[in-house]
Give the backbone structure.
Amino acid sequence: MKVILLERIGKHGHIGDEVTVKDGYARNFLLPQHKALRATEANRKKFEVERASIEKRNAERREAAAGIAAGLNGQTVVIIRQAGETGQLYGSVSSRDVAEALSSAGFTVARSQVVLADPITQGQCNTFDPASGTFGEVRSLLKENNLAWRLALDWSPSPDTLLYASVSRGYKSGTTPINAANLARQNAPVKQEKLTAYEVGLKATLADRM
């Protein structure tokens, strides 16, 4: 179905754009929510007549949304769900659950304003991507190289005496956590550990063999 947008709708377009969407999406969401008009000649004329008031109304909504966003920035809500001994989640957390938790915390947020690519389900750890405005599974990349080495020197001032010294460098490999977490930074890669060891010693005969 071809419609005229009355406000910005995700990736579909902005105010006044004529776009083609699925019939069900238009009939069940855009049209009853007064977010779009059917793209007819009569509605095109109606939109042009009311365009100034429509744009003003959308500007007011943006300002209100910006105020809510400023208050939400840095806020954390706790949603309790059953989990196993290893931290795996049973059931899921949906956009409705997030919206209700925010409302209980005193924020005015509609379910439609919470964008989840998919419900947070068992075993998942989700993080928000500002670029796409969606949540997704946490992914991390750990790429490191190293060179382990050892340098040793020894000197024998006499047949039965040995002085020696060495220095060595080793590494403990890095890893990516796989345990359940509720913050993205808890799943950040653990970098390899560097260890430098020093050794100095003396070997000598204390007494002739009896």
About this structure: The first helix runs from residue 23 to 30.
